[in-house]
């Protein structure tokens, strides 16, 4: 299946290679570089490329390309999903997935890759199993290791792979038993010029952090599970019980994991927490334009809107922006032509406003389209869909765990067309 | 370690020999090393790092984990340190070797880390091989692992030396620890050294029968490795695969199927015996294995089952065949022949109704839950399986899951959109509800935008085209010009596909001609050109318009295109064309080359059609062109002059000039690039590239006739064995293992009724019902039986005829000889025997189980016995079905009541036995109530003229859904279910009656069942049920309680107490149960609707919520709609049109409107529901209710009921 893996930074250096079968010359990457050149933007490089003898499947994550070489038919999503899992694992181990951090931990990375694939077929991809075999680095351990010569590799054998619950490691022990669930909802919306909703839906995810001793069997139930339109689960969730009773019943992995993601469709009315009044115009004659944006609260359910930002990808011809903001700061990046207005909290009494003029390259024609606004926001203690966790029960263990649920609403792909 | 050292020391000289040989080997190595590209820069970088690295080594190896960063930062000391540094200084790695030879593990580890870091960077470290390989038996696990990494990387290049390590692995293969055995096999098989093929083969064979499933899994992984090393071993390997395929653990399943796919994908016959097992294990296999198995099973199913859409596709084909027959007059004979064939096939199909193989159904049912996987590859695999295998009506389920993947990483989006694009061509309706999910954001990468555009274009039809065009309008203004160009093409395609909007699109495109961007204009002109070519009769207006534009448009490409158009269709614009030519002639010298060429073309065409007016002009243009700077233009001018102007010299060619120039050019076809891509298996690499990738297995066509289904039958003992393995699964999988048992139940007729019907008996329809049901609840069985008996009324005759006479006799005898009770008893006893048998097996299997497993043993056994009990119950219901069938045959519709009763009975018993899925899904239950419901609606019809009948009787009481209050496990034997009985609660009319069923599954009696500690939202009230003093073991009882929910769907929480325990439980009503039917006439209904909507004085205005929907295919008749709505909500139907009610036989209007009315229980606010049907299953749902919350929720519920 997956023959080789090359890690390439955004300038085009191959800084790590791993082969699971016979070695393949790194010159295959030239085809990729060619495509990258052609595409310009790294996001536009086709994920699947055909070369005379191989197929290249690439993902782009954190300014890195993970390029895998394939020789025979394999579902492309299989490879893509796996590469993302590799990147996730790096993130899990080292806190981020970047060139520097991979170079710093090259041996651990190599050991991980060795365990994750066998002859190109995924072997152990569960973080709990991997962590049992290869301990993630931390400062204390690396100090101890240099002094004593002991290693990162666990000397116990990984029993996780043998169990029927591969996602949970055995013999978990905590003095404080706690289970936290974050219900995070993101509003994806497209608003048109006049502020009416073209398309809106809610994407939710429940992130869990479970630190419980032993083998707890948890049941999480909702006040209003009917809201959920489409769901996908971590493999630990028993699907049949969800189907029948709409409760999440599972033996959790140890540590942080994504319990479920869900989707509340656009058929339900999606509350849009803010409104945007904007006017952006460029003048036909004279190289300038005007910009005036005001934001206000709309359906906030009585909660404070925080972390409000407006990001605008300006047309290439806009040279500079001379604006005044009544609240927050704005920056205009000349290289990327991105205007970011960081507002912070939304004060309903005094609406934030950004106003001023834009200077356009002299002689350039007036941009045809006004740039659309990407809104970022955050509302604490609110799940905009109205989803509520009703209770969490634990079976199989005797102690009383500490339980907590947090709700957050964020703007996802929230775009206002102008 | 010591043994290894001994081993290595034995041939001390061997190492020495090696050393001498080394330099030689190395030299070759350099030459052939595929790692190092001749890329000079890269190599310089590597070698430049070397001195620095050595410095680190000299400082004692405390430099911190061979970090690449330090090395990078280090100045390039040795400038262009020599590309051939390895060859020049072969002893460079001396320090590393020293470290490896030392006794300190920490030094070895440090050295190995450096070496692995070198490998990771693609640097050659092969000269260290002898030094490294010595450490293969090192005790330090990390050192050992890193040595393995090194070994696997370089063994292929240094085969002789690699052999030294083999004995270590061979020893490892015999280790008592399974993990060591596995890892030894893994490394051994990864060393690509041909000499050890026999050793590998032996090792694999041994491991394949290892006790540990993990070792067997590793063996499965090793198979493709060995195969790629030596394909000659194929036959032996297939034997191993065959053996491993029979393995019953989830751990092995994925890996062995992967091996199967790589080694012998053509040996589909190996799957037969394991098919059902694979289907059943699937949900518990790890995600990567799931993908491989699903893809393989798709192919398998294509060879083994009949096309579920056979009848439809035959008919479709028949139609298209007819079209071509009428459309073209060539090959008439052949066509006729074909048609005959098709007609024959269609007739065949009609004669023999399609029956889905239960195994086919099993596959569909077991893969469906995987649509909820977090792994995109799994979701895609299931989606392609459904697309390729499922009956048309069921494919829709995958749309939602695929749309969900669009939120994922952009690479995932890219692949999914490609597949969606292919699907939308075949099954447009599937994605139509998700149209908006494909709207494009300005921040999407261009490749994603273009794919989304493709999908939007494919989804466009008459109803949604206006919205789509409005979207396109915003896209056209985008800054991303490639995307704009694609949008214009998309508009063109919409215009060709949908006649109504062609003119609008054309006008829009014409406006785009004045765009500043060349790309946009060029693209629009090209698209306009294509559109005009399709509709040659209507385009003179636009051509005129475009002719006017020549004054303004400066983009040469666009000017050229316009001129071509005028020339091509000059007959349609006879007056304007010469004028354009005149203008062009004037500006000829200032035009761009492509425009000049088109001017010449235009002149030539005009000369041929209208020589009078344009003769002089043409000559003028040709003269100008003759002296043009561009030789292309000069050549063209000469050529055309010769061709069109008849002279003495010019031969016969000029006669044909008109034909040459004004030949009818075929209209370009605007087709999706994704057309016909579905002959590749979706989700495959080949599909994505639209080219066959190496190793791609064609998706076979459906067979004409189904191959023998009995090949998949497994011998009885094997089945029993499987049962025992299932029971030995630890507790956590109980849920899924129970599923398996359930599935086994479904399969059961196959296994046990060997002397009875061996073939599939259920019709496709009833099958699909039971399938959708079994996923969500226990309703499946009885729903299956319900629809079956119903079906038997209609189609039993034809079906029965095909059955053997003998069989019939047998059955009759059975029926006559045994009374029902006896029969079930005998069935049960036989079941019990089987169970005993199973138990025996289980006990035998016990010693093998590990500790953790035996913990759960007791409970397992318990549930096991129950499951077998439920099995017996199941068989009971089956026999009942048979009986019913017989009864139906003899006197079809006479006693529906009795049947109803029976069904209800089985339903109850089934429900009691079922553990985890007590609530039958809403879409299933109605099926069994279909008959009674139609009765109800009939009754309703009667009641219209006879309003005395109380509304309570109208509500379909049989359509009750059961919800679980307390599960048998959590309730320690006590299980409680509840349903909303829809009867008025006599003590308090404002309360909703909740009927509770208590079942005591425990072995001891339960006493003093009562409620306590009721926690309610403010305003809510509860009337507790009377205390149940005693519930003996195994008994069931019911009680009724009343809850005033205050018209909200808040749950009522309380404690259910027995004499020993208290259980926290809660009851949450679906919104449909918060109302009671209210009878009103149509006129009253309308009046209420209007006055409530309009009157401004009303404090609480009536809210109206309207939703458009597409009715489910099975729900397009009146009965079905009424029944589904009344099941979803406790409403009564409003009789329609007073004139119609008097005489029922009057044909119903084409698009009837169904009205329902009710009042909320607590506040008695009116709830009015209107379902207006429209053409082709479209419908509009309107709900009026004072309470907005109730209204919205009700809309959602009814919508769900009607669309599923």
TrEMBL record, chain A:
GO terms for biological process: intracellular protein transport; vesicle-mediated transport. GO terms for cellular component: clathrin adaptor complex; cytoplasmic vesicle membrane; Golgi apparatus. Its main location: membrane. Residues 176-417 form the MHD domain. It is a peripheral membrane protein. Keywords: Cytoplasmic vesicle, Golgi apparatus, Membrane, Protein transport, Transport. Belongs to the adaptor complexes medium subunit family. This is AP-3 complex subunit mu-1. The gene is ap3m1.
